[in-house]
Write a structure and sequence with these properties.
The structure is a homodimer of 212-residue chains. The first copy, chain A, is mainly alpha-helical and 212 residues long. Chain A contains eight helices and no strands. The interface between A and B is large, with 39 and 39 residues. The first copy, chain A, binds a DNA duplex (30 and 30 nucleotides) through residues 1, 11-12, 15-16, 19, 40-43, 50-54, 56-58, 61.
DNA sequence: GTCTTCGGTGAACGCTTGTACTCCAGGGTG
DNA sequence: CACCCTGGAGTACAAGCGTTCACCGAAGAC
């Protein structure tokens, strides 16, 4: 990494961390217009401003880099869950807020949500695997969140799993749409649709429970 | 294409069509373990058994090939809709059958459904665009199908769109899971889950309509 | 002040990639 | 019959790829 003018005093670990971050960000950026499998080590190095071989000082391969990005991206996804469960968890008026929270996070961490959506189905095998595993964990986490909501005490574990799966699926799908959206005007439409969707799902879950 | 022994008599157009098919199938196959963007013209040619330059006699580029595969794959998806709407469309007992129909089609056209799932988010730009467009068409098609079912006459157009969007999304998600599934034993579990999911959604739609 | 550690360099390797050319053989057509 | 059309072969090239190796200079440890 070439020394930036005006800030010559950086410790060695600071410099290393800075380059490492640059590599991660650049790779995330390059993968955005297809997939990580189409990203070359040399292109990353070139964009970062280091020589190709210097890449190896930080990661063993693009795939290893990808696993790191998986962790980062899922930190962003978990943050959504955390923010959603923070207010008073009443099953009904939770909905409107949830969608807004999701939209906020997607907007702030656009690259991460896109990364998850892409690499889940089209990443390097190890990365794909890691994403699937993380999604399963998030589904479980959401299931226990739902179980804590008053009125869901007598639900079976299976029902909880199915519902949280459904919610995570449409959460990811909504995130995808928000990312692809031609910026601001279509966004409210997508959010409205997501809210309706979420209502349908929840009303369905409640009524279906009491029916069976 | 090297002449296959024992069937030397093929017209020129037949031979061309045969090579063309081989190219399409090979590309579909190679894209299966990541994405079309990771498939090289040379690799396809090699696997087909022709010299790289001969590829151009059939397609201008891998991307053009991809657009062709999009059409084929969506023929497979539309076939699901066609088979689902064939029996008597009563909203309730339709569900169990639908999931089986989907599973059948996914099993028969595994490669096509995987292709859609992957290239939708991670294909070459033009391919991605084409997939999104086709999905929108399928959503519309499903919406008019639903509108024909007795009991949905007074639904708003927006509600129809939202519901069909939700159904297509979970249809694609289910197909994905079936494809990834460690063959036969997990399949019934996925199908059960999908049925429950579908019931939740439909019950939700019905009840939510009558509530508002 | 000396020695060590280590992020970054630069040249070199063998291989794959897309694409441009010319050429050929054999079926289709007059 | 002779002629053309065309799918495929063969050769060639410049560019990009991942990876190896020896080397350097400055920050950090002592």
């Amino acid at each position: 990494m070439v020394a930036a003018p005006g800030e010559g005093t950086l410790s060695r670990v600071e410099r290393k961390e800075r380059t490492r971050r640059a590599i991660l960000d650049t790779a995330l950026d390059l993968s955005a217009d297809t997939s990580l499998v189409a990203v070359s080590l040399r292109q990353v190095a070139k964009d970062v401003g280091i020589v190709p071989t210097a890449f190896y000082r930080h990661f063993a391969s693009i795939e290893a880099l990808g696993l790191e990005l998986v962790d980062e991206s899922f930190a962003s996804l978990r943050a959504v869950l955390r923010d959603v469960r923070r207010p008073d968890p009443s099953l009904k008026e939770l909905i409107d807020g949830s969608v807004d929270v999701l939209a906020e996070h997607v907007d702030a961490r656009r690259a991460h949500f896109g990364f998850i959506a892409r690499e889940r189905v089209a990443g390097p095998p190890a990365v794909r695997e890691a994403v699937r595993h993380q999604i399963e964990l998030v589904e479980r986490e959401l299931a226990t969140d739902i179980a804590r909501i008053p009125g869901t005490e007598n639900w079976s574990a299976d029902d909880l799993r199915v519902l949280s799966k459904l919610m995570v699926t449409s959460m990811v799908a909504t995130a995808e749409m928000l990312i692809v959206a031609p910026r601001p005007e279509a966004e409210t439409e997508i959010k409205d649709s997501a809210r309706t969707q979420l209502r349908m799902v929840l009303v369905g879950a409640v009524n279906w429970r009491s029916e069976t």
